[in-house]
Amino acid sequence: MQTLWQDLRFALRQVWKNPGFSLTAILSLALGIGATVSVFSVLYGAVIDPWPYAGFDRVIQINTISKTGDERGMGLTGPEVRQLLHTRSVEDMVAMNDRSMVITGSDVPEDVKAVSMTANGFQFFGIPAMLGRYILPSDAPDGQDPQPVAVLSYTFWRRHFNSDANIVGKNIQLIHQDYTILGVLPPRFTWQDADVYLPLKMSQDPLTVDYDVYAKLKAGIATQVAEQEFYPLFQQFDKVRPNSYPPGFRLKVRKMGEYYVRDLRSTLFLLFGAVALLLAIACSNVSILLLARGTARQHEFAMRAAVGGSRSRIVRQLLTESLLLSLVGAGLGVFLAYRTVDFIVDRLPEYSFPHEAVFHVNLTVLLFSVGLAILSGVLFGVFPALDSSRQEINQVMQSGTHKVAGSVRGRRVHTGLIAGQIALTLLLLTAAGAAIQGFSQMMHRPLGYDPQRVMSVGIPINEHTLTTWAERSVYFTQLRERVAAMPGVISAGISSNATPPANGWRLPFEILGKTAGEQQEALTNFISPEYFGILHIPLMKGRLWDQSEVARGATLALVNETFVNKYFPGEEIIGRSVRIPRLTNQPPYRLTATGSDDWVQVIGVVADSLDNGMDKPILPGIYLPYTAYMYMGTQILVRTQGAPQDMLHSIRQEIAAMNPDQQTNTRVDDLETWIKREPAWANSRLISILFAAFSGLALTLAAVGLYSVVSYSVVQRTGEFGIRMALGAQRVHVMRMVLLSASASVGIGLVMGLGLSLGLGRMVSHWVNQQAHNPLIAFGVSLLIIAISALACLIPARRALSVDPMTALRRE
């Protein structure tokens, strides 16, 4: 124990005497461990294990895929759900729908998101209530009216009821109907981000009412087997409900984990690959530092051996020093990991991961990273002592205190480690450059519309109200007119589904007089004529609708320039007719004007604007009056004189003054925020920020490693430089010698890095959502690494130039 304490005290003195070396080694490990553990922890929480529900690895969603490869979800009717439930592949199934409800009593109604689900729903999810109980089959027998009961989400219970522990058994009034509160759900039950959960009476109607459906496959049933069993049923459904599915559709059964986070998965795996490279660079950097310092101390090892120190004693001393550095670095890395997880989570695309996910430091990866760091420190910290034991003590003693005393193999290890660092750093920098270039292009991409000082106010319609086309049409018109007349509002318009930068419904259409093509689809938007003025989208040809045409739901349409260029190149489009057969009337949820699914005449062409997301080409677009097709809610676009959010409460009061039961969506954002919420924009921003940070750290570590080796080399070659200068060598010759000593490592690393970057160019482009890999980025990064490497070598080289030949000779 006393010997161990002596080793520890000596190790602490060494750390204190060499603060630059110690701090660099500790920070290298801390940064590598912190980045790796935090990114994998986010990956694990968001992608690998995000769901708290029982057996959720077998829960699926059924989608259709059109001939063009467009994949989308679908709704099913009550009879269709019952048929699927009795298939051989399905163990259980839950049907649900969501709707907006309202709580009145304040100056503006409070919007409440309610999810109604079949009575087996909570048993399907398999999570007990935190307070009270959840809805049981006895509360809503199939085919009967359910009991007026509700279960509250945790966040709604805390927000609206101030965490009342005695809430069970009390009532909540939604749209003037009392519901008895059965219980409160635990924090991680956030399915569809609902506020309240209600029992659902599944309709017997085979045509109009549809539900979101989630099925749990029996154990051992593959998704391909389920697809084959479901497909004949969906062909029958298509015959009963024509135009509900794309022509020539096929089915795709996806597990929820695959479907929900498929976009985020690639982003997080990419980032994890980046931080794994950073961890490798950090461990390599510590190895270089320990090797360089160990080489410089070989004379010390020889002296200790000469006075009776055993090889095991020297190795144990170095092991203690290496462990001390590794453990301190690992401890700081753990601290950074805990601090970095929240930083990354705050920058994830908002709806790219389940809100049930819990993010915390992953213990397995933490132990692996710490173990790797300790192993690197121990291995390369002890290596110089083992290497020096192969040399004769007299030879080392006679070589002089400041002469290089490393083996050829040791120098090769130095060269290999630095070259590896340079190669991995170049790969990271190339990927970071591509990511930043892609994000910059996205930020500077012309929108085709003006989002400044415009917000979208969602107006949900309560169930069993405004059930006729005339009522709903007049109601939406009156809401728009009242908001437009408010002081501070420049203009207001209806945008049922047309709020950019990702708007419209992708629907097949026909052109009168032309044969329909297999890929003949357009984004269909339902708007008022004020829409184009609010967003500053110019009318290129023809005219807009007048108010009388909107009021009667006239069968008149406008199209964008992409539509004209694709389907009417070189032709006159004004006066031509198109037909969208899927615009069918399905009261009370979807109400259409007479003739909406028949031929509609094109009366105008508007300029292109982004309609398919920030990273995709503009698609053909068709614009119809919002009265042509109205569902349970709409959006009012408002352009204001000042900041839109400053007027939000006044707008809500104005709407409530017209209808005290009319709420607006809880969350209302301006259109610039809509852009930032786009998954492609948020993903690209996240990758750019983190890749830039990781590659910057990697470049710093590589420069420090190179500087350390060259600096130690200069110290050990002081006598050699003095002799050369005494014999007439010029300073420029000494400078060249120092620079050339590192050129092999840098050159090999650059060649390897360029090979990796160019060879993996297509993969890197795909990773960072770039259309094509730009080789100039790799070459530009190479020049940057050369410049940084030259700078890292220049400081030790200047030290070599300051050597006094006579002083150096006397030291020899």
Q: Ranges with pLDDT <50 over ≥5 residues? A: 388-406
Spatial extent as radius of gyration? 34 Å
- Residue-averaged pLDDT: 84
Distance between the termini: 40 Å
Shape: elongated
Please indicate the percent range of residues in DSSP E strands (runs of 2 or more): 15-25%
Please tag this protein with its features.
eight-stranded mixed beta sheet, 812 residues, eleven-stranded mixed beta sheet, alpha+beta, 25 helices
Descriptive account of the structure:
- This protein is α+β, with helices and mostly antiparallel strands and 812 residues long.
- The protein folds into three domains: 2-47 and 262-444 and 680-811, no CATH class; 70-222, no CATH class; 454-641, no CATH class.
- Helices cover 50% and strands 16% of the residues.
- It contains 25 helices and 25 strands.
- Helix 8 packs antiparallel against helix 13, helix 10 (311-345) runs antiparallel to helix 11 (363-388) and helix 13 (408-443) packs across helix 22.
- The longest helix is centred in the last third of the chain and has 38 residues, at 679-716.
- It is elongated, with a radius of gyration of 34 Å.
- The model is unreliable at 388-406 (pLDDT under 50).
